[in-house]
Each structure stands twice: as C-alpha cells, then as structure tokens.
Amino acid sequence: MSIKIGVLGxxxxxxxxxxxxxNNGHQVELWGNSQAIADEIxxxxxxxxxxPEFEINPRxxxxxxxxxxxxxxxxxxxxxxxxxxxSVAERMRPILATLPKQPLLISATKGLEIGTHKRIxxxxxxxxxxxxxxxxxxxxxxxxxxxxxxxxxxxLTVASANLKxxxxxxxxxxxxYFRLYTNDDMVGVELGGALKNVxxxxxxxxxxxxxxxxxxxxxxxxxxxxxxxxxxxxGANPLTFMGLSGIGDLIVTCTxxxxxxxxxxxxxxxxxxxxxxxxxxxMVVEGVGTAEAAHELCQKLQVDTPISESIYxxxxxxxxxxxxxxxxxxxxxxxxxxxxx
Length: 341
Ligand SMILES: NC(=O)C1=CN([C@@H]2O[C@H](COP(=O)(O)OP(=O)(O)OC[C@H]3O[C@@H](n4cnc5c(N)ncnc54)[C@H](O)[C@@H]3O)[C@@H](O)[C@H]2O)C=CC1
Ligand SMILES: O=C(CO)COP(=O)(O)O
Known about the structure:
Elements: E1 4-8, H1 12-23, E2 27-31, H2 35-43, E3 61-63, H3 66-70, E4 75-78, H4 82-97, E5 104-107, H5 120-127, H6 130-133, E6 137-140, H7 145-149, E7 154-159, H8 163-173, E8 178-183, H9 186-209, H10 213-233, H11 244-255, H12 260-269, H13 274-281, H14 286-301, H15 306-316, H16 321-329
Parallel strand pairs: 1-2, 1-4, 2-3, 4-5, 5-6, 7-8
Antiparallel strand pairs: 6-7
Helix pairs in contact: 4-5, 9-10, 9-11, 9-12, 9-14, 9-15, 10-11, 12-13, 14-15, 15-16
Bound molecules: 1,4-dihydronicotinamide adenine dinucleotide (NAI) and 1,3-dihydroxyacetonephosphate.
C-alpha cells in the first residue's frame, strides 16, 4: 500500500518522519516555512540546521506550498510546535474544504496551548469540522529524532478514539526499526507527551547543578506520579502513564542529551538565563510553554503538582533553584500510595 502523506513542519522530527515514511514506500510532501531549508532538502538532501549528520532520502520533497502539500493527501501529519498548530490549522481549513478527499489527521506534536491549556486534539476539534477532527490519531512516545535518523530501535504509541484509524497509522509507519502500539486513551497519551517535557527541564536542572542518579530517579518517579494525578483528573486511564507515551517518554527525555527540554534545564542549572538558552537552542523547547499552561490548568482543577510548580516558578518567576529544591525536599512526609491532592 503506497499513500501520500503531507508532513507539516520541516524541523528535526518532521524531517526524520518524512524520511521514514518515504523509506516505507510512501509519497511524502514535507511542508515548511523556510525557502532555504526546502531548497536544501530538495537539492542537497540534508537539513543541517536541525540534523547536521543526516542524509535524507532524495524522494522526500519539501515545499512551502500548503495547497500542494494537502492535494490528494491520504494523511496529514502535524509535526509543528504547539504554538503554530492553531494558525496552520486555520490556513488549512479553506483548502481542505475544496478537496474531494479528506485526509486522516495525525499529530506528533507534544504540548499544551498557552492561554487555553488545550491539548492538540482539542485545538484540532476547534479548528476542523467534527467528522475530520474525530478521526485524529495521536502519535507519541520515546523517540528522539537523532536516534530515529540512525535507525535506532524505537517504539511508540498511536492513540485514537477509532481503533481502525490507529491501526492504519500503525501499518504505514511500522518497519524493522520502528514499532507502534495502539491505545484508545487519547487524553492520557497526549498528556504524557506534553507534561514530561516540564519534568525533563527539571532533570536537566538537577544535572546542571551536579546532582546524581538518586535525585534524577526520584524526580522521574515522583514526576510520573504527578503527571498521572493530573491525567486521571482529566479522564485519562492511569495505566497509560505506565506505557511508552508515559513513563517511556519521561525516561528518554529526562536522560538524553538529545532532549531540548533536558538541555534547556541543564543550562539553567549551570546558571544561564532562560532567554539566552532559548535563543541559542534554535529549536522548540515545548516544556517552557507547557509549564505555564499546566500551572494554570492545575490551579483551575485544584491538582497538586509540586515538582512542575517549582519548575514553573524557576521559569516564570525567576525563583531561586536551590530554594525550590529545598522546598520540595522539606514538604510534609507522605505515604507513597496516596494519589489524592
Ligand atoms: N525532535 C524530536 O526528537 C521530537 C519532537 N517531538 C515534537 O514534535 C514537535 C516539533 O518538534 P521539532 O521537530 O523538534 O521542532 P523543531 O524546532 O526542530 O522544528 C519545528 C519546525 O516547525 C517550523 N515552524 C514553526 N512555526 C511554523 C509555522 N507557523 N508554519 C510552518 N512551520 C513552522 C519551524 O520553522 C521548524 O522548522 C514538538 O511538539 C516536539 O515536542 C516529538 C517527538 C520527538
Ligand atoms: O519528545 C521527545 C522525545 O520523545 C523530544 O523531546 P525534546 O523536545 O526534549 O527533545
């Protein structure tokens, strides 16, 4: 089965996924917002700003023309930063309205929208007709682009309210180095992918300050506890957080130098200023915006997420990192099995 897929976002993850899909025998149009990068992908078959060592399959075609990307597409894969999803969806809507065939929508983006606190599926639901938005598939799990580029073994989760759609996405992506599992818990899969980015900033901070393995293991374990607490309040299945899109993604993001969120935290721990870190990164650090959205969401829902709250204060209130760590360590003693606030 060969199909056409429009991949939206010619950054690290979009470029590697476009390459993987072409390797799997599909036709791919990779849509971006930089003419220089599109030209480089089409002529030199590289995207050096994002992936300096990577040779892209020459059959990946890049374009700045959204109309061309959406024409005849069987599926459209969002791999844009969270902040760009709504405006790109608005641009897509009139184009899709003229097409005889509606593509399946897939999101590989991990974040919560600032201001609305919405998940990507909720933004899509706002922006597209119900029939199209209802068939969205969420694509998430432990997967650094740099590792997939070298065909390192990778397993992810695809979640949809429609199992058949998740299975179809599973079939177009799977190959001998890329394995997908289906799940029907979209809320849990989306929240795991978004909220782990905040905790990964914390893991980077601990590393930058020189803390060791015990501290990082504690952060990850108590991190997944608070992600699950918020998730359950929002209707997620708690077992989803034990899966690839939960603990799996938290582990990879909290332990890898490939993680932009971890690198951001590491630089903060070493004393750099957030504005400088973000400027130098040159790629999206989703945990920063998601920390703000999660902070407001937790206040609204009255869910206790002490680690994410500390990270929020470091990012947005210039709180002293050492004081925040002391506060976390000196909270009243708790029973580990308590799940309530
Ligand atoms: N890089 C990775 O290994 C992984 C990233 N993700 C997620 O995928 C999403 C994208 O991440 P990356 O590819 O790493 O980001 P990136 O920063 O490498 O690339 C994002 C791309 O989107 C483009 N862009 C931004 N606004 C745009 C707009 N309005 N219209 C068109 N293009 C626009 C940027 O120019 C850039 O080329 C994020 O939500 C991230 O959390 C998920 C799994 C792995
Ligand atoms: O989601 C990711 C890995 O699964 C990518 O994380 P970073 O955005 O921190 O690089």
